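Worked example 4.2. Below are the chains of a multi-component assembly; read each line carefully before continuing.
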Amino acid sequence: MKTPEIIADRPPDVKEIHIVWMTTGLGCDGDSVSITAASLPSIEDIVMGAIPGLPRVHVHNPVLAYEVGDDFMKYWFDAEAGKLEPFVLVLEGSVPNEKIKQEGYWAAMGTDPDTGQPITTNEWIDRLAPKATAVIACGTCATYGGIHAMEGNPTGAMGLADYLGWNWKSKAGLPIVNVPGCPVQPDNMMETVLYLLYQVAGLAPVIPLDDQLRPTWLFGKTVHEGCDRAGYYEQADFAREYGSPKCLVKIGCWGPVVNCNVTKRGWMDGIGGCPNVGGICIGCTMPGFPDKFMPFMDAPPGSALSTIVVGVWGGILRGLRGITNLNVNKEPKWRHPRAELTTGYEPEFYGPNNRN
Amino acid sequence: MPEVITAPKRGTSAPQGNIVEMSWDPITRIVGSLGIYTKIDFDSKKVVECYSTSSIFRGYSVFMKNKDPRDAHFITSRICGICGDNHATCSVYAQNMAYGVKPPKLGEIIVNLGEAAEYMFDHNIFQDNLVGVDFCEMMVKETNPGVWEKAQRSEAPHAKDHGYRTIADIMHALNPFEGEFYRETLQVSRYTREMFCLMEGRHVHPSTLYPGGVGTVPSIQVFTDYMVRLARYAEFMKRCLPLHDDLFDFFYEALPGYEQVGQRRILLGCWGSFQDPDVCDYNYKTMNEWGKAMYVTPGIVVDGELVTTNLVDINLGIRILLGSSYYEDWGETGEVFVKNDPLGNPIDRRHPWNQTTIPKPQKRDFGGNYTWVMSPRWLDKRSGDHLALDTGGGPIARLWVTALAGLVDIGYVKATGNSVKIRLPKTATKGAVEFEWKIPKWSNAIERDRARTYFQAYAAACAYYFYEQAIKEVYAGRTATFTPFKVPDEAIGCGFHEAVRGVLSHHLVIRNGKIANYHPYPPTPWNANPRDVYGTPGPYEDAVQNTPIFEENGPDNFKGIDIMRAVRSFDPCLPCGVHMFLGNGKTLKKMHTPTALAGLAH
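Applying the procedure described above to all two chains together yields the following structure tokens:
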């Protein structure tokens, strides 16, 4: 038998890769902070090469960088000049509309040496996106606009795909990869990065994305489908107040119609989350967030009908299960301290029928 | 006696000096994008002028109008990606006041436990994974080879507590990613965030906080999972705190005069943290009483003197000034939402309750408007001055006010009038330890950083107390965590809290059951603001101006490390408000009259 190839020893198709991480969309840096919470894999697992088969990774993120000012901006200018090949561009924060005003800026990073004015975030996207091997929109602001694109906002904010176009493709032919979440669930983001690294290393096929450009294995199921409180829903047993351990749909939880794995994955290494730990799902991973889910603390309009329907048989189900539950909470009758064996076994060499 | 600096520092150097204009953009290893513009005099080795500028506008106060007030904490959490939960908590406090609702005791304790975990996590990651890099071997070798030389010869006084023999060993352990202590603190930042998630659902935008209480299910398990991690953290702090004391003391010793780096007049504000559930009823009229019962005392320290600990006085004195910001003045024409507070005190037009935000994007002009940040000030009635209070990154102001007020005494923590004693009980390999934070001589970079480590221990000590309170409620069967409420048609509310990096207030006005006005004031606008209408520079500008340069590099490979340490000591968190500018690194221009800052009146 031929010894199989040790994949871990295989040199990656791409030896080194840079991650140019922009936090200067309209955001809160919550996604960068989030990835420092990731453990599956952690940022140090990626940077220090703990996982075999991957290219060497250089992360240029302003929250973590050793370099400051121009020493740091050098990577941006190098990427623009084609001297940082290949690189993945990550955007955090929504893209403001800089065309709606006469002067000034909504969001910027670095200074234009010619004018002394700030370089807008949008200009950086225009400069770098065409040069990037892959582009990741990290968090709901960057993917779909999020909080800062709420109705009545003064900046005209939008998501990256709204800005570049939903059919936009990188020079390597990849669409934008959207990893929504407000903020992004730590391991969801780092696992997506890991997948793309496997892909450029030549170890994984093209990343599977749905029509909202989300990784399918992360966003293919609803919050409700993974929720450990879904059993209460099935039995039409609904919380009327916050602080209850029951199903929260009547007090604002949108879990049944929201694509997110938080109830399966928890928030950090299985701990925390949303409806599973008493927090209503406010739809923070969704393109319709936040407006379509507000006011957050009212029951979703659709839940009125569905909970009535469930109520009919859910109540009966709960009653029947209650009876069965009582039954299985009792031990079988043959477990007792009396001087007789009632388990059904008939011994031959002890007890009443002892043949000796 | 603390040294008193009575006036904000202004540029004093002769314009003909060897002045180099430098800008650093972005300042990394902070949250958010910040740039700083300076002029540095390399003859006298001083920063002579500094401008702080913000590059991002999002418009929370604009888009929150007419929304359901119950959405406010979900929305305002998104202001900040590292202390969003502080915003959510503060918003809930403001809503509780507006709705007239008091959460059950256990609900309040769960919030205290969550917020304590936030301090433990956030100070930890900032101190050792972001600020710590400014003190690591790589950086010190690059900027001050002489100091590195000395560090190798300097025994660490507390080596037996933390295990590092020399100061150089500590610096080596702080190297990014390769350093052992750097990696350990990253891991600590994770289990402390897990503690947070146990109480508030998720980090950094909580899922289980509501006005009226929390949705957290108070099982025995939730508290066990918290306590086991807390004990691990206390064990860690018994090594971490002596390590930082050694490192910071070494800088004073190695670089005489280092106390001037980032130094400014003692003007500290703290809005208080951790409600006492037995006293706090969220009624504005009793705010003075329940404010004083907080486990971190609110107050204002001016030139070393405690001016007030009354939250009502604090509230009434807040003024939002313009002067160098990209906004239209609402001034005399803006709508007055609140004429008098519930006690009958008049509310100023420039108070957050009456503020109207009118964005006006424009070109950056350092002689005119140059930032998106407004200038919050506190009106000192004694002098009539609009004081540019700072938070010193949070901990130094919290400890200073708490120490002077002498009100907190919970066994684990005791304020003595001139110090704060912090007791951490026995842990796996170490016995009980008492640390004492003493009021320092200066409000400067090193003391801001040192206070951060002590406050990590303070938060852990408080968490032991909160845990014991919480589990007592659970054992007694008092497990309610939520009180129902109704949203009134017309109401006002205010919340006061300490975000990780300092003062946080939320001011809310409800009309017709909707938000009519909402203005959050986080710490960074207080610290990172520009020159106000009276010409008073903001605290970063003030602290960096006249900072002496100890870096051994000349202008050609200048890193600006002393300026970085001055700025980072404030724990800048720019999503809450700024963008500063300092040094052009490699593309220095040497000139007598720098062009980009030319024409500025001094």
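Take a moment to check your reading of the output against the notes. The first strand of chain A starts at residue 16 and ends at 22. The CA atoms of residues 308 and 341 of chain A lie 51 Å apart.
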